[in-house]
Amino acid sequence: MFFDLFNGDADGIFALHQHRLSFPAISTLITGVKRDICLLQQLAGTKDAEITVFDVSLDSNRRGIAPLLAQGNCIRWFDHHFAGKIPVHPRLHTIINPSPTTCTSLIVNTVLGGSHPGWAICGAYGDNLQEPADRLAGKIGLSAKEMSQLAELGKLFNYNGYGVTTADLHFHPKKLYLAIAPFADPLAFIAQSKELAVLRDGCAEDLQCAAEGEQQKIGHHSLYFFPDAPWARRISGIYSNLKARQEPDAAHVIITRVGDNLRLSVRAPLNDSQRADTLCRAFPTGGGRAGAAGINELPPEELSHFIDTFSKTWPS
Ligand SMILES: [Mn+2]
User: Fold this and answer.
1) Integer Cα distance of 37 and 58 in angstroms
2) In angstroms, what is the span from residue 11 Cα to ligand 1's centroid?
3) How far is the CA of 212 from the centre of ligand 1 (A)?
4) How far is the C-alpha of 82 from the C-alpha of 80, rounded, in Å?
């Protein structure tokens, strides 16, 4: 029995694909939306299987590892997220490199001795690793046009992974993997793919909805108000990154209605990536990193309190 666990974004899908091109097997696929990273728990009770994991953090799945190893399973783990202390066991093989200049698709490419570099390049573009992706593309002699085709494929598969549940997505990540599975060459997939056209149009439409949404300026900083809708759940991460690049001196907050509450995604100014975490942690369900943080559930009546704290964090 083979189980393949992979992140539902571009990097996870293309890492798995490279591996299975080199080691074909009929496997059970376990995946979800990009943020669904606790996948190992779905295998509780599995015995004597070959489990391969791509692009999810070992640390986030730590509790599931020891029981699976004790039940005779063999686990191979390819990843670039924070792993913490890696357990030592003869049936656990980890190839984990948390360097900010690599990703799981590039790690698998190295392990396979560059057998399927086109897919590794797509994964790197999907994870926003422009420079390493360009370098590998140059090394295998791709033209500028081919590079931009692979970059688009990576970015659109990455876009497809965003949502709160798989019902928000244009395609279940399993479906996208099965769509590319017959293709050894990403350019051949691109030439005939119906999925790419759907994702290209979907992404453009979602960006249009976002641009037409309600916006409030506080000095040169911006708050965007999104409704409780699938397009908003798909595009908010990409939109806030886009805005941060367009206005690097401004802080950006996307405020999405989720049921009765508000979910906030906060980006510090790109040119001074600080204090987003302290701002969000001032609220009960807040957390994150200095440059990008969020509040999961803010009661609407707390919004004015948030705006006050925001204005003190980043005076305009
Ligand atoms: Mn990744």
Assistant:
1) 9
2) 5
3) 31
4) 7
Query: What is the secondary structure of 120-164 as a DSSP string?
Result: HHHHHHHTT-HHHHHHHHHHTT--HHHHHHHHHHHHHHHHHT-SS
Mean model confidence pLDDT for the chain: 95
Which of the four pLDDT bands, split at 50, 70 and 90, describes residue 273?
confident
The two structure tokens encoding residue 142: 């791709």
CA distances to 12, 76, 295, 296, 303 from 24, rounded to whole Å, are 17, 15, 42, 41, 52
Ligand 1 centroid – CA 34 distance (Å) = 9
Rounded Cα distance, 222 and 253, in Å: 6
CA distance 230 to 104: 28
Q: State how far the Cα of 16 lies from the Cα of 78, in Å rounded to an integer.
A: 9
Instruction: Please tell me which residue, 16 or 270, carries the higher pLDDT value.
Output: 16
> Near ion ligand 1, which residues have CB within 5 Å?
11, 55, 103-104, 127
* pLDDT tens-digit series, residues 4-47: 999 999 999 999 999 999 999 999 999 999 989 999 999 999 99
pLDDT band at 219; cut points 50, 70, 90? very high
pTM of the model: 0.90
Residue with tokens 């040119």: 271
Complete domains list, the chain, with CATH: 2-201 (3.90.1640), 213-313 (3.10.310.40)
Residue 91, judged by CB atoms within 10 A of its CB (0-12, 13-18, 19+), counts as middle
Stretch 52-58: mean pLDDT, rounded?
Answer: 96
pLDDT higher than threshold 90 for residue 116: yes
